[in-house]
Specification:
Blueprint: E1 9-15, H1 22-34, E2 38-43, H2 48-52, H3 57-60, E3 63-67, H4 85-94, E4 102-107, H5 109-115, H6 118-129, E5 144-151, H7 157-166, E6 169-176, E7 179-186, E8 194-202, E9 208-210, H8 243-250, H9 260-267
Parallel strand pairs: 1-5, 1-6, 2-3, 2-4, 4-5
Antiparallel strand pairs: 6-7, 7-8, 8-9
Helix pairs in contact: 4-6, 6-7
Length: about 300
């Protein structure tokens, strides 16, 4: 997991129905806050109270929360709503001018994909994660780390591939025998991609507990009370032959098989080695016309 804190850029947290990723996102948010970074939260899927739940007061005081959950499109025109909707909120985060490392957590990219075109979101993410020096000769702005939660079942290969091409790090959650696993793919510029699998657990206070040693490779033991699944159950063709089908198969004479007459003639020694015999067995589909033997040549 330490590779997530290498450099700035987009970090995709890919979760599923079996393995949710919001707890890991909150664990990363807490670690960024403890490192002294500025942490901005763009909340879309859950309320601010629900996202802050579990953090102590010292962590919550360091989080800058941008609430899109309550009024995403500013229909109420209340003073606390974000102007410009989701795209305006992303553009506002791009105008950061304060120095120091920054972490921006997007909860979630799936919600943004459902409300923004994929190309528009990708352009905003590029501008967000690749910020340069501000105008006016100010000191350079350090790279921004963008943490984006992505629900894999909700999107097709197009949006998933577009976001993967932008990400410097992808963390895909899965599990084996009740153990949570994080499959980490790092794609740094001018470097070979690196793969890593890490066992982890999330503590109640959203601290990240990394477990030592290689991940468990063994599959869970099957339940003896559950009957084994027959792999050929849902096939559109039959792999097994009945008794009549096997007898018909065994009695079938293939075109390339020699008849008993031909076998005896080949095995019987001839009167002279110079003589030879040609045996022709008509095929069932042969069309022999004695009046026009060259009919099949179309001449």
């Amino acid at each position: 997991m330490e590779s997530v804190w290498g450099v700035g850029g987009l970090v995709l947290l890919r979760d599923s129905v079996e393995w949710e990723g919001r707890s890991l996102l909150k664990a990363f948010v807490k670690k960024s806050a403890l490192c002294g970074e500025q942490v901005h939260i763009l909340g879309c899927e859950v309320s601010e109270d629900e996202f802050r739940e579990g953090f102590d007061s010292s962590i919550n005081s360091r989080l800058v929360y941008h609430d899109l959950f309550r009024d995403p499109f500013n229909w109420s025109q209340a003073g606390g709503a974000l102007p410009g909707g989701p795209l305006g909120a992303l553009r506002a985060l791009c105008k950061r001018t304060e120095p120091g490392p920054v972490t921006i957590a997007l909860d979630s990219l799936s919600w943004l994909l459902l409300h923004l075109p994929c190309t528009t979101l990708c352009q905003a993410l590029c501008a967000l994660s690749q910020q340069h020096s501000p105008l006016g000769g100010s000191p350079p702005v350090e790279p921004v780390r963008v943490l984006g939660l992505l629900h894999m079942e909700l999107h097709g290969p197009g949006p998933m591939g577009a976001l993967s091409s932008l990400a410097q790090t992808e963390v895909t959650l899965s599990g084996t025998a009740g153990q949570a696993l994080a499959h980490i793919l790092c794609q740094r510029p001018r470097q070979h991609p690196t793969h890593q699998t890490q066992c982890f657990s999330i503590l109640p206070d959203f601290s990240l507990d990394l477990q030592e040693g290689p991940p468990l490779e063994s599959q869970p033991h099957p339940d003896p009370h559950i009957p084994p699944v027959e792999p050929t159950t849902h096939l559109t063709f039959n792999l097994h032959l009945s008794k009549k089908e096997r007898e018909a198969k065994d009695s079938l004479t293939l075109p390339f098989q020699f008849s008993s007459e031909k076998q005896q003639a080949l095995l019987r020694p001839g009167p002279s080695q110079a003589t030879s015999n040609i045996f022709y067995e008509p095929d069932v589909y042969d069309d022999l016309d004695q009046e026009d033997p060259d009919d099949d040549l179309d001449v």
